[in-house]
Each structure stands twice: as structure tokens, then as C-alpha cells.
Amino acid sequence: MIEQVHDINVVDQQTQATALHFAALRSVTGLIDRLEQREDLDYLVQDRQGRYPSELAWEISGNEELGAMLHIELFEHFIGFFQYP
Q: What's this model's pTM, rounded to 2 decimal places?
């Protein structure tokens, strides 16, 4: 089903959170694994309070391992954003 979603990074109008934010908040690792299969998954989206999914995993769900993994992905995508062809 995730493969059929046109925009995997669509944000909730109220919270500005994505599916990745909600999955990180609840530590739904199975969903995160499925989301990560999409090349267009954006780890750099911040919610209305300026938080990345990795921060929600650490601060709200208390899942340090998941938070660290998402933070590494965030960093790698951030660095890739500034690389020149």
C-alpha cells in the first residue's frame, strides 16, 4: 500500500507531521522499515514545532536506538542535499 501513495511526505495540516513523524513518535519500526523503502522519503521535514522524526523517537517515545538510526539518516540526507553533481 505504501508503494501506491503518491506523496509519502504529505504533512498533516494541524501538526505539519509526516507519516515518518507519526511512526517515530510511536516507535512503529515495521512502518518505518516500509517507509524507508521509498527513495523519496524525506528525513528533513520538520513538524510545526520544528522537530525532526529522529527527535520524536528520542524525546517522546524514548527509543534511543530508533532515534539514533533516524538521526544518521537525517544527517546523510542533509549532507547529500549540499553535494554538487
A: 0.83
